Amino acid sequence: MTRLAADYIYTLDRPDPIRNGFVEYSPEGVVTAVGVCEDTSKEEIFLEGAIVPGFINTHCHVELSYMWKLFRKGTGMAGFIDQINALRDTKPLPEKIADIRHWMDVMWERGVSAMADISNCDDSFEIKRESPMYTRTFLEVFGTEPEDCASVMEGVMRLKEKADKMGLDAAPTPHACYTMSPDLLTAVSAEGLKSGFLSYHSEETEEEEDMIKYGRGAMWDNRKAAGMSVPPVTGKSSLLYFIDMLQKAHPAPFDEHILLVHEVCMDQEGIDAVKAVMRHPYIALCPCSNLFIHNALPPVDLMRRNGLKLTVGTDSLSSNDDLDIVRELYCLQGASEDLSLGELLTWACVNGAEFLGKEKTLGTIEIGKCPGLVFIDNLGADGRLTAGSCSYRLV
């Protein structure tokens, strides 16, 4: 058995960290003991910082890693979409594959033990199969024209067959209200729900809300200028529209694990609607991406007051400078003064593991579990994250 000790051990199965604690684990990484050090001076390895469970990145587009550093910031969603359309597939496949492999390795070494990833193609499949990181792949589809629904569904089911043959957990998922016809949104949701999991980009920007509530704004103009169909103008938020479409897939309540990604514009009406129909809703917070695109953050305190299960994602390198969970946590910490490191880690570890259905092995440091052990250094005197805090995989 190997033993590690540190200033703080965040087991996350209890409210507070263990001060001057230790963790013992087997060669396979299974936790065998956790406790308080009798004498820290006698510990062979004592780390000045925190030992925490492996992170769960609940929202990433790792196949877009080749887009790192290509995008202008602060363009709003319409401008961001224009850049995506202009820059997609501007590198040859071998370079794309190399970038995916590099960033998968970077995330693993920084402590990501599992990831919910979005895929529009099979570029990442082989790398995921080889990686020690657990992944659930959401096969995201687009299609604004109603007549394309059947062909789009045929295409995503072929992609699922490829993932299945490679032993990956994967299923179709919808993208967002503004990139899908109502028929396609319902059809792909119905198929994805069969897996027990769904991921959906929701209320990422006020431009999205203006589009579906009022039929106006930059995204509406963008779509009309391109000759594309636009979503129905409902007078309601895009989240409420999604719930309406979801209930056409099958009646509420929804026992499946449904991940609402971003939710920058979420309000109390939306939260109440989610709670009324979803038994296991989760929110994926991607704060650095939100700031990158439109300099806004989700209403985290409102979400906390309502008891929503929050998780943490990085989004992609098209809308982020890095794929670094600690950087995301530091950003969230700066937006809410009373956020403790323990609560942030609960989002990044426990809740993410629960969303993926992997809470029996991941998310907490408990005897018999194999969550991965991660070290976070450069904590402040108060035990909170600092701008210099970094994470490193120990196990």
How is this structure best summarized?
The protein has 395 residues and is an alpha/beta fold.
Question: Which properties best describe this structure?
Answer:
four-stranded parallel β-sheet, alpha/beta, six-stranded mixed β-sheet, 395 residues, TIM Barrel, 14 strands
Please provide a written account of the structure.
This protein is of the alpha/beta class and 395 residues long. It has a domain at 55-323: TIM Barrel (Alpha-Beta Barrel). The protein has 13 helices and 14 strands. It has helices at residues 76-87, 93-110, 125-130, 149-165, 182-193, 206-214, 218-225, 238-249, 268-277, 287-294, 300-305, 325-335, 341-355; strands at residues 2-9, 18-25, 31-36, 46-53, 55-60, 112-119, 134-141, 169-174, 197-202, 254-262, 278-285, 309-312, 373-376, 391-393. Strands 3-2-1-4-13-14 form a six-stranded mixed beta sheet. A four-stranded parallel beta sheet has the order 5-6-7-8. It has a four-stranded parallel beta sheet with strand order 9-10-11-12. Helix 3 links the parallel strand 6 (112-119) and strand 7 (134-141). Helix 4 (149-165) runs parallel beside helix 5 (182-193), helix 5 crosses helix 8 and helix 12 packs across helix 13. The longest helix is centred in the first third of the chain and has 18 residues, at 93-110. The chain is globular. 50% of the residues are buried.
Average the pLDDT over all residues and give the rounded result.
97
Largest sheet: 6 strands, mixed
Overall SS class? alpha/beta
Provide the low-confidence segments as ranges: none
The CATH architecture assignment of one domain turns out to be Alpha-Beta Barrel
Give the SSE order as H and E letters. EEEEEHHEHEHEHEHHHEHEHHEHHEE
CATH superfamily of one domain: Metal-dependent hydrolases
